[in-house]
Amino acid sequence: MPEVTWEVSGGGEQSPPTKKKMVFLTPIKITDNMDDNQKTFFTNYNNMQKELIKAGLMESK
């Protein structure tokens, strides 16, 4: 196999990427009149929202 040589041809200093946080939405209240699929979906949604806030990827309010 031939030897591969890498060469940097130019470019300046790069600025760090900007991270825009997602907008906070109120967690969805799980109610008794929801079917099982809706309850599962909204439970997962609320849990994902908590993780995004914890990771600093979503505004907290």
Automatic annotation (TrEMBL):
It comes from the Bacteria. This is Uncharacterized protein. The lineage of its organism: Bacteria, Bacillati, Bacillota, Bacilli, Bacillales.
